[in-house]
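Why Hotdog fold thioesterase? Reviewers of the renewal asked for a concrete example.
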Amino acid sequence: MSAHKIKELIRKNDNLGNYLGVKLTEVSEGRAYAELKIEKCHLNAAGVTHGASIFALADIALAAASNSYGNVALLTNGNIQVFHATPLGDTLTAKAKEVSASRKLAHYRIKVTNQAGDQIAVYNATVYKTSTPLPDSE
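Here is what the prediction returned.
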């Protein structure tokens, strides 16, 4: 499946990503970039970006990267470390990269940065690679 089709499939079918405003900017085999402009709805009670918003951004980049080979890949384990709080108005970018893969499992590292290039978080995730083809995006 082409990178364009993966982006289109996620754009059409990822309801949470659409609700949050996550935009996939780049997809290739085993890699993906996603962006999120932090708005009021992304903030927690302390007035900084909610950890769930950061996790969701990173997880959507993971979904694009891990499904880029054309078969369904599903999260089995994910761990995020957040290093810095981010305020309203920041733009966060998640860059997902495949670190290792076997026949059934693959490990990804997703780095989240702000518009200044500061590392905000790192998300390490393992996916289970199924033999089920992704649905057609059309």
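The first helix runs from residue 3 to 13. This is the kind of structural detail the renewal will allow us to pursue systematically.
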